[in-house]
UniProtKB/TrEMBL annotation:
It comes from Actinopolyspora righensis. The keyword Hydrolase does not apply. GO terms for molecular function: ATP binding; histidine-tRNA ligase activity. It is an enzyme of class 6 (ligase). Signal peptide: none annotated. It comes from the Bacteria. Keywords: Aminoacyl-tRNA synthetase, ATP-binding, Cytoplasm, Ligase, Nucleotide-binding, Protein biosynthesis. Residues 23-312 form the Aminoacyl-transfer RNA synthetases class-II family profile domain. It is found in: Cytoplasm. It catalyses: tRNA(His) + L-histidine + ATP = L-histidyl-tRNA(His) + AMP + diphosphate + H(+). This is Histidine--tRNA ligase. InterPro entries: aa-tRNA-synth_II, aa-tRNA-synth_II/BPL/LPL, Anticodon-bd, Anticodon-bd_dom_sf, His-tRNA-ligase, HisRS-like_core, HisRS/HisZ, HisRS_anticodon.
Amino acid sequence: MSTFAAPKGIPEYYPPESARFLAVRDTLGEAARRAGYGYIELPVFEDTALFARGVGESTDVVSKEMYTFPDQGGRSITLRPEGTAGVIRSVIEHGLDRGQLPLKLYYSGAFFRYERPQAGRYRQLQQVGVEAIGVDDPALDAEVIAVADEGYRRLGLTGHRIELTSLGDNTCRPEYRAKLQEFLRGLPLDEETRRRVELNPLRVLDDKRPEVREMVADAPLMADNLSDQAAEHYERVKEHLRDLDVPFTENPRLVRGLDYYTKTTFEFVHDGLGAQSGIGGGGRYDGLMADLGGAELSGVGFGLGLDRTMLACEVEGVRPGDQSRCDIYCVPLGEQAKRRLVALAGQLRHAGIRVEIAYGGKGLKGAMKAADRSGARYALVLGERDLTEDSAQLKDLSGGQQESIPLSSVVEKARTVLSG
Ligand code: HAM
């Protein structure tokens, strides 16, 4: 046994499962591209202060879960726990908001949170995310939600649902916060929860303990205390979602773990996953860009958890990207044949055909078994006699038909049979 193991709480994807991982990532990314989102590649670590300011000091993510360390130059560095703050930092730094608005970006990659690992909760998690910056239009909120829904549907998922609410804007939120705090201060809560009431009262509404749930059952809700403008925005979002045929349920108790949200917030929930049922989430964050030193521009986006989406696919028996890894499996019999087939495999790959070769001097029987396992449609067998005749045997692995093909026309023949 190796003395090394991957760090705790990190899912790894290797063949054949990794093909599904790529398909999930690509399908969700493709849904974003189709709606006009351009790809942005961001650093995996940033200045710690960016997340403290952007995500919020009082959140669990910042106060408990960040991988923070000094680099060799003594700067405080943090492995990104989420993508939005980094996108906004990059937009401000490079003036990307000076072009046409909304600026629509998408990204994918690994994020890091020091959480207690369990099924569906990892310390390195993967997301595909989008951010649409600079236009405060409810139709854009609906687009973002519809893009995520479309991505999940393209994967073949049907068991997810969307929870939606509005967290208000900077006119009604402070008033609501004070009202909620007043209510919560009157409850016999424990010391730590009392502290939370002062720091982040909304989070108390999300407490999972039954006794706390019971106590906050009658708490005032943001959804009932929206300003006219926020209420109007919320109504329009719902209207657009209905027009788009994207079903949702309203959950006025929906609380997100990041501080930047305003107005529309949403979560994609999959009930087949147990405790970690949030497969994706997002919302509007109209104050974030200004908070980070940029222009007063609004934003809305989502982050979809690829690891949990993989689990949802498993639960639903959906197998995206489940295809053979090659089209033609080359079987050389002897050294001379191998030289020719290695070169021919290169030509076939140049022609866009997926090719594998039986390495290691496998005999015919073993090589044909490997050809079957590879999922290839054809085997290309080259023996000593074929070589003298300048031809190879193309064997259809499903029907068993075998044909002798001149070596000079193998690429052309392969193209023809594979396109059929
Ligand atoms: P978030 O809700 O913190 O939002 O994360 C988005 C998704 O990432 C979650 O719904 C979940 O599927 C996945 N996820 C989060 N933590 C873990 C974990 N420990 N293990 C496995 N999966 C996890 C954000 O990150 C925001 N930046 C989304 C956003 C973009 N809002 C606006 N724009």
